[in-house]
Amino acid sequence: MSRQVNCVYLKKEAPGLDFQLYPGELGKKIFDSISKEAWALWQAKQVMLINEKKLNMMNLEHRKLLEDAMQQFLFEGADVHIEGYVPKA
């Protein structure tokens, strides 16, 4: 039986992550209130963002930019705008 969380992204009870995937306080917040489904949605956006902006995860500024986008996406309901990406209708 997977653990349930009240997912702030999906605004409903849903299966939670199996373990904390992100370090620190933010990681704990994600573990406690983001579902597997919402995390998977973020990961897809993250890949597009990294590719589009040619982010280097060794670069502290790039990691900060990605972390800010992650927080806005997961907790503030902001969509991540990907230049030239048009979702399939």
From TrEMBL:
| Record-given protein name | Probable Fe(2+)-trafficking protein
**InterPro entries noted in UniProt:** Fe_traffick_prot_YggX, Fe_traffick_prot_YggX_sf
Which PANTHER family does this entry report, sorted A to Z? FE(2+)-TRAFFICKING PROTEIN-RELATED
Q: What does this protein do?
A: Could be a mediator in iron transactions between iron acquisition and iron-requiring processes, such as synthesis and/or repair of Fe-S clusters in biosynthetic enzymes.
Does Iron count among this protein's keywords? yes
List keywords of the entry alphabetically.
Iron
Which HAMAP family does the entry mention? Fe_traffic_YggX
Keyword Hydrolase assigned: no
Q: Which family does it belong to?
A: Belongs to the Fe(2+)-trafficking protein family.
